[in-house]
Amino acid sequence: MLELVRRLNAGIHSTSDDEHYVTLLLVEIDARKRALRYVNCGHNPALLFQARTGKLTRLGSSCPPVGMFSEEFCELASANLSAGDVLVLYTDGVTEAQNRFGEQFGAERLSDVVRRSSFGSAEELMSNIVQDAADFCGETGFSDDVTVVVVKCNLDQSLAAAVSPGAGSN
Fold first, then answer.
1. Are 66 and 9 in contact (CB under 8 A)?
2. At what angle do helices 106-117 and 122-137 cross, to 10 degrees?
3. Would you say residue 170 lies in a domain?
4. I need a surface site. Which of 49, 51, 88, 90 has the fewest CB within 10 A?
5. Tally of structural domains, the chain
6. What is the full DSSP assignment across 34-88?
């Protein structure tokens, strides 16, 4: 993973100026070892809900956005997984969605939806996130792209994933 980030950084930095960069979140799940490894390059923190404890952890940045600097200094981060754990990845169109008063949906509302809906399927959780954010926006609708990826860890069986089709505009 770190080598991939290094190569991407070198390629993007060599073809752009210092004001253009890419946020990136790479996640690798090893169901046999019940672990995930990730590199978060300035992207929104993924949310990891641990079913056994009810704890919600934000998987924050482990390095700067790709292409921002000539050399990338990244760290590989990891977390243990258990059956029933839920991983949620999302674009800023979810947390920055605004209602008619200019108030953002935000990370806390997103976290509340994850906690409240984590015991359903991956698809149900993904739908609940998109629907709650859309309800929050009301008639104003989304002003940015909205993408949500949910992975539910059924480690004794398999991984179940749901991906939103994307909504809004760029």
1. yes
2. 140
3. no
4. 51
5. 1
6. TEEEEEEEBSPPEEEEETTTTEEEEE--SBPPBTSSSS-----EEEE--TT-EEE
Residue 169 confidence (pLDDT) = 46
In DSSP terms, 39 is beta-bridged to: 26
Tokens linked to 10: 């070198």
Q: Domain limits at 67?
A: 2-163
Rounded distance, CA 127 to CA 108, Å?
Answer: 18
Residues 52-77 have a mean pLDDT of 89
Q: What's the pLDDT tens digit per position in 68-79?
A: 888 878 889 999
On whether residue 26 sits in a domain, the answer given is yes
Q: What pTM value is reported for the model?
A: 0.86
Measure the N-to-C terminal CA separation of the chain; round to a whole number of Å. Answer: 28
Q: What is the mean pLDDT of residues 113-127?
A: 95
